[in-house]
Each structure stands twice: as structure tokens, then as C-alpha cells.
Design goal:
Layout (H helix, E strand, L loop, with lengths): L1 H15 L10 H16 L12 H15 L6 H12 L3 H4 L4 H4 L2 H16 L7 H10 L6 H14 L5 H10 L4 H11 L3 H13 L3 H13 L22
Helix pairs in contact: 1-2, 2-3, 3-7, 4-7, 7-8, 7-9, 8-9, 9-11, 10-11, 10-12, 11-13, 12-13
Length: 241
């Protein structure tokens, strides 16, 4: 039944999309979403859905992996159309997938991050204001893994106003969180962000974090690779995202 749902949903999305989106590019995502939805619907006690040990949490990981595995610079324009439909919770999705899954912060944050990446390479011009506000609202989520997802996403959808927040996370020196915050500062492509990284490397005490930031600073050559609010052709971009 889940396979049938996936096939039907692929057809609905393909037919309803205004762009020519190759179905193979996103069928893994649809399959993973349908599977996660079925797992959530089958749970007798849904209050344990977000437990790291739950079957549903494992299905969410599969969704995130599928979202990332289907990303490529070359076909980002096609994929971003699908991601925007997903972000907007198009009826073609809500008919087959439980809204709890589509609206789950881990899914929404990863979709937001990938749309932001598409914006940066001119593959999409989706208004980042709404997704940026959503990402910021999850920076202090009670779930640490959601916090981490928000930190990662902010590098793609954020701007100069986020420099202070990300720098603060770097200076807290929490394992993993600080490194992702440093990477997000780099991805902002903002002079203030690079100044913050140069300041951070002098302040942090953890050796591996200091080395990580130093490597970012060595890569920065004094120019802004992406003007704020603009994008750069993926043919010219040095960033692999």
C-alpha cells in the first residue's frame, strides 16, 4: 500500500508541477516521506514519536538522507521546484502524507537549507524571508538535534543580521554546534561574518575548533564571493555546499 501511495503521489506531483521535473530526482524523497507517514500513523502512542529510539525518528533520518542524496548542483533548478512545493505543503503531498511529517522541524529545516542553497547558485529565487524566520525560530528548540539543523540551515538562508547569533554559538564551544555555526558564518558570504570568524579564532580555547576556524579563515581571500541578496552561477561558484 505504501508503494502504491508513493507511485500515485509521484504522478500527482509530476503532473501538477509547472516545471519539467525528472521524477527520478525526487522519488526517493517521496518514498521516504510516505514511509515515515505510515510509521507515524501506526504508532499507538504518538507522544514518543520524537524519541531518538523510536522507529519514526529513524524514518525521519531516512527522509533527511533522501533530501540530501537527491541534491546536485547541476539539477538544482529542477529539484528546487519540488522542494518549494514541499515547503508550501502542496495539496499533492498533504493528501498522501501526514501533515505531522511534512511539518516536522527536521524536515522543514532541511528543505529550507536546500532551498537556500538553490537560491545562492541562482537555481531559485524563492523569498528567503519566511524560511529564514522559521529557521531562526528553531535555534533554541528544546531538541538539540533540531537546534543543530537550524544552525546548519542558517548558513544558507541567513544574512548579516545573524552574525552575532552564530558567533555566540561558536564561542560557546559546544562540540559539533560550534563547528556548524562557524561553517554557517562562512556560508553567509558577509564581511561581518568573516570578521567574526577572525575574532573567534583568537577567543576559542578548544584546539580542534581553533584549527577548524583557522582553515576557514585561510580559505577566505578578502573578497565576498556572494553579494548579500544576490546569487552566483554554479559554474563560477567555488562552494560545493
Amino acid at each position: 500500500m505504501n508503494i502504491l501511495k508513493s507511485i500515485l503521489l509521484l504522478c500527482i506531483v509530476s503532473c501538477s508541477s509547472g516545471a519539467s521535473v525528472p521524477p527520478k530526482q525526487y522519488n526517493d524523497v517521496v518514498n521516504a516521506l510516505v514511509d515515515a507517514s505510515a510509521t507515524y500513523d501506526s504508532m499507538a502512542n504518538k507522544s514518543f514519536a520524537d524519541s531518538s529510539a523510536s522507529a519514526f525518528s529513524r524514518k525521519l533520518i531516512a527522509v533527511i538522507n533522501a533530501l540530501n542524496n537527491n541534491w546536485s548542483m547541476e539539477s538544482a533548478e529542477y529539484y528546487s521546484n519540488f522542494l518549494i512545493q514541499l515547503w508550501n505543503m502542496d495539496e499533492s503531498f498533504t493528501e498522501k502524507i501526514d501533515p505531522f511529517v511534512l511539518n516536522h522541524p527536521k524536515v522543514r529545516l532541511e528543505v529550507a537549507r536546500l532551498i537556500g542553497q538553490a537560491n545562492k547558485i541562482c537555481a531559485s529565487n524563492f523569498d528567503a524571508t519566511v524560511i529564514g524566520d522559521y529557521v531562526r525560530s528553531n535555534l533554541h528548540n528544546s531538541n538539540p538535534s533540531i537546534q543543530l539543523s537550524a544552525i546548519r540551515a542558517l548558513g544558507s538562508v541567513g544574512n548579516g543580521q545573524d552574525v552575532e547569533t552564530l558567533l555566540g554559538i561558536v564561542l560557546e564551544e559546544r562540540n559539533g554546534f560550534a563547528e556548524h555555526a562557524a561553517s554557517s558564518l562562512d556560508l553567509l558570504h558577509d564581511k561581518g561574518a568573516y570578521s567574526a570568524l577572525k575574532s573567534a579564532v583568537k577567543q576559542v580555547k578548544r584546539d580542534d575548533l581553533k584549527k577548524y576556524i583557522t582553515e576557514i579563515n585561510e580559505y577566505y581571500d578578502g573578497s565576498i564571493r556572494l553579494p548579500e541578496g544576490g546569487c552566483i552561477s554554479n559554474k563560477d561558484s567555488k562552494d560545493s555546499f
